[in-house]
Design goal:
By secondary structure, this protein is an alpha/beta fold. It has eight helices and ten strands. The chain is 33% helix and 17% strand. The longest helix has 18 residues. The chain binds fructose -6-phosphate. The site of fructose -6-phosphate has 14 residues, from loops.
């Protein structure tokens, strides 16, 4: 595993942005696996700036996102499709038809999971899968469990997640209870993985994930078994791992 430790969030975003940018330069028709969450926002700003300056061309790039809430359409401001459009896709010259996010409004969640897994396979191996990490070691919506889920699947959100999301919705009834997520197997099929972490609050789980035992109780720990992982984090997030 390659580890890059940066002084702060902005430097982390520039470093991780450079890694994805170099892939786009070297392979203009690459497939990027993308993530939502607060950590990649600075990295996405980097990519937008480099596209605006003419350094990057996304016209042949394809993307697949990790996850989406069940029940939210792409025009809902809390959907992950909306997040990707507003934080990246609307600002670069990627073709929207080449961007893939699970369909949260699909009438049959299991059929949508099967369709999405076949989209991932049809695109060929993801060249680089970007991941953030939850405080409990979750990646995508793969929460601590008894086993590592293999393929794209529907999950029931944990009560703590539902509670935390409540502030973004008008009523408690509107808060999504389920989500669609790539499985751990879907993620591990990627040729390379780029993990971004920032902030002191992530330091304990970063250490558990990358220096502790590989266990489904810490889903990100599986990444220790992937042959091509790059971890980019700021000092605050990496301090416990690097000691
Ligand atoms: C995002 C995702 C999540 C986040 C994780 C970290 O698509 O699947 O696993 O990567 O919750 O989120 P942040 O970056 O907000 O700390």
């Amino acid at each position: 595993m390659q580890i890059y430790c940066t002084p702060n969030y902005d430097a982390m975003s520039r470093k991780a942005g450079s890694i994805l940018a170099s892939l786009v330069v070297l392979k203009p028709n690459c497939t990027l696996g993308l993530a939502t969450g607060s950590t990649p926002i600075g990295l996405y700003k980097e990519l937008i700036a480099r596209c605006e300056s003419g350094e990057l061309d996304f016209s042949a790039v394809k993307s697949v996102n990790l996850d989406e809430y069940i029940g939210l359409g792409g025009d809902h401001d809390q959907s992950y499709r909306y997040f990707m459009n507003t934080n990246l896709f609307d600002h670069i010259n990627i073709q929207k038809a080449n961007t893939h996010v699970p369909n949260g409004l699909a009438p049959d969640a299991d059929a949508e999971c099967a369709r999405y897994e076949s989209v991932i396979d049809a695109l060929g191996p993801i060249d680089c899968q970007l991941l953030g990490m939850g405080h409990n070691g979750h990646i995508g919506f793969n929460e601590p469990a008894e086993h590592f889920p293999l393929v794209t699947h529907a999950v029931d959100l944990q009560p703590s997640t539902i509670q935390a999301n409540a502030r973004f919705f008008a009523t408690m009834e509107d808060v999504p209870r389920r989500a669609l997520t790539m499985g751990i197997g879907s993620i591990m099929k990627a040729k390379s993985i780029l993990v971004v972490v920032s902030g002191k609050d992530k330091a304990p789980i970063v250490k558990r994930a990358f220096a502790g035992p590989v266990t489904p109780q810490v889903p990100a720990s599986i990444l220790q078994l992937h042959p091509n992982v790059t971890l980019v984090g700021d000092e605050a997030a990496l301090c416990e791992l690097l000691g």
